[in-house]
Amino acid sequence: MRCRSVRYVRAPVAQLDRADGFYPSGCGFDSCQGYQREFVRCFCRYETDLVRIGCDTETVSNVLSVPELVGEVVRLEPLSRAHAQDLLVAASGDRSTYGFTVVPSTLDAMRSYVDALLSDFERGQVVPFAQVSVATGRAVGATRYLTIRYRPGQPTPFAVEIGGTWLSGSAQRTAINSEAKLLLLTYAFDEWGVARVDLKTDARNERSRAAMSRIGATFEGVLRQWQPSQVAGEEELLRDSAMFSVMDFEWPVVRESLESRLI
Q1: Mean pLDDT across the stretch 140-156?
Q2: What is the distance between the alpha carbons of residues 234 and 14, in angstroms, rounded to a whole number?
Q3: Rg for the chain (alpha carbons), in Å?
Q4: Where does residue 232 rank: exposed (0-12), middle (13-18), buried (19+ CB within 10 A)?
Q5: Distance (Å, whole) CA 51 – CA 53
Q6: Distance CA 40, CA 241 (A)
Q7: What is the residue-averaged pLDDT of the chain?
Q8: CA separation for the pair 67, 63 (Å, rounded)
């Protein structure tokens, strides 16, 4: 929550001298009757936070701060417009596996796709990444955290979904996909301390369902007419979604399985 006169300024994390990450100011911040504690983070690679100055009367959405996640074969970089050209090249090869996924095929469409994800990020709805090949330094796909759920007043989520994932045809069924999932799951469970991570796909997408099972996710069932279809020509239809999950108590076994696949 915040008042309409509140200001947010960007400041290095090292300068934050309060455990809750906020600076009080002359508006009677700590004694304001409308005060409700809520963390707000910025998402960038420079380790900065948004510092608020003012009292609280208006809702502020959570924006999660996630650093670049680096593995041996893939680097998950915070998505930016600079990735659009590489993503277009990645999407321009074999597109036969994109039947259930939105993967733009022109530069304008790819830029709009990236802009939409960045807008959703600013609203605290997603945390998007470009999947960058360590070998080439070029983006070969995208992925994101979404469906982010919080307990009231908590700065980090208790559950998230990993989804919106696609890779170039040449990067599919390589270590890139397995390591990217390992990086995302590790951050969610070990840094945020989530209780569960969701994975879901169109119930007709047998390839994606098999991939989710291979990483050790548990099939929970099919949610009927759960969301708009992403299949071309089905824009007015709702799809059934196959739901999978990994729980915190299952995570050690899933981690070991993913790590073994990278050896």
Answers
A1: 93
A2: 50
A3: 20
A4: exposed
A5: 7
A6: 32
A7: 80
A8: 13
Q: How far apart (Å, rounded) are the C-alpha atoms in residues 197 and 70?
A: 20
Amino acid at 186: T
Count other Cβ atoms within 10 Å, centred on residue 75. 21
- Model-level pTM? 0.75
Average pLDDT over residues 216-222: 95
DSSP code of residue 54: S
Q: How far apart are CA 207 and CA 99, in angstroms?
A: 11
With a cut of 50, say whether residue 221 has pLDDT above it: yes
Instruction: Return the structure tokens found at 162.
Output: 């990993």
Q: Where are the alpha helices (DSSP H) in 49-198?
A: 84-91, 107-122, 175-186
Name which of 4-18, 115-129, 230-244 the model is least confident about.
Answer: 4-18
Q: Which of 35-44, 115-124, 165-174, 181-190 is predicted with the least confidence, judged by mean pLDDT?
A: 35-44
The CA distance from 140 to 153, in Å, is: 37
Neighbours of 258 (CB within 10 A): 19
Query: What per-residue confidence (pLDDT) applies to 91?
Result: 93
Q: Tell me the residue ranges of DSSP E strands in the chain.
A: 7-12, 48-53, 69-70, 74-78, 127-133, 139-149, 159-167, 196-202, 218-228, 238-247
Letter for the amino acid at 115?
D
pLDDT at 125: 92
Indicate where the chain has its CATH 3.40.630.30 domain(s).
69-262
Just give the CATH number of 69-262: 3.40.630.30
3-state helix/strand/coil string of 185-225 = HHHHHHHHCCCEEEEEEECCCHHHHHHHHHCCCEEEEEEEE
* Out of 10-19, 107-116, 147-156, 164-173, least confident range: 10-19
